[in-house]
Amino acid sequence: TVHVGGTCVDDRHNALLVGFVVLIGVGLTGYFFVESRKSSLRDGNSHRYHAILPDASGLSAKSNVVIAGLNVGEVVDIRLENRQARLELRVVDTVVLYRDAALRKEAAGLLGTHATLTLDPGTEGAGVLQDGEAIPRIVLAATTTEILDQVDQVAADVKSITTKIDGEILGITTDIRGITHALSTFVSGGE
C-alpha cells in the first residue's frame, strides 16, 4: 500500500486492473484476427466450382479469384489429385459461369511467389456451368523460370549477332585499309 496525497493506493489492485485490461486487449485482438480470416462466402451467397491445374505454386487457401481486377471469389481448398492440383473455389452467386469459362493463373509478383486466379466467365450461348462442376478451360501464364529462360535465349541470340557484326566490321576495316593503302600508293606515284 502506498499513500499518495492522503489517499491510500493498493499496488495489487492496480496490477490486477492492468492485467485485466491487457487480457481484454489480447482477447479482442485474437477475436478480430479469427474473424478477419473467415470467408464471407457461404453456401447461400456463392457457388462452388473446381479446377485442375498442373502447378498451384503461389496459390493457397484464401487466394483471390478476380474478374477485371475485382475480387469475385476465393480458393477454398487445394489438394493433390493424380499428380495435379485440384482447387476448390467459391464464386459469388452474382457471377454466372458458362461452359466455356476459363481460369488463368498468373504470377502476381516478379519472383512468382504469389499468384492470382483470373476468371473469364465465358459466353451466354455456351450454357450455364452448374454448382460443383469443373471450370473447363485452364490457361497458364508463363512462369518466372520460363520468362528467364527466354531472356537467356534472347541474350545468347544478341551475343551471336554482335559477334557476327564484329567480324563483318573487322572485314570492312581491313578492306578500307587495303583500299586506302592502294589509293595512297597510286597517288604517290606507284611506289
Characterization of this structure:
With 191 residues, this protein is α+β, with helices and mostly antiparallel strands. The protein is 37% helix and 29% strand. The protein is built from two helices and nine strands. The protein has helices at 11-37, 144-187; strands at residues 2-4, 7-9, 46-53, 64-67, 70-81, 84-92, 102-107, 115-120, 137-140. The strands form two sheets. A seven-stranded mixed sheet has the order 3-6-5-4-8-7-9, with no helix packed on it. It has a two-stranded antiparallel sheet with strand order 1-2. A hairpin with a 7-residue loop joins strand 7 and strand 8. The radius of gyration is 34 Å and the shape is elongated. The N and C termini lie far apart (119 Å).
Percentage of helical residues? 25-40%
What is the mean pLDDT? 82
Measured on Cα atoms, how large is the radius of gyration?
Answer: 34 Å
- Give the number of DSSP strands: 9
**Span between N and C termini?**
119 Å
- The low-pLDDT segments are none
List the secondary-structure elements in sequence, H or E.
EEHEEEEEEEH
Major sheet: size, sense and barrel closure?
A: 7 strands, mixed
Classify the beta-strand content into a percent band. 25-35%
How are the strands ordered across the major sheet?
Answer: 3-6-5-4-8-7-9
Q: Helix segment count? A: 2
Secondary-structure class = alpha+beta
Judging from the principal axes of the Cα atoms, what is the shape?
A: elongated
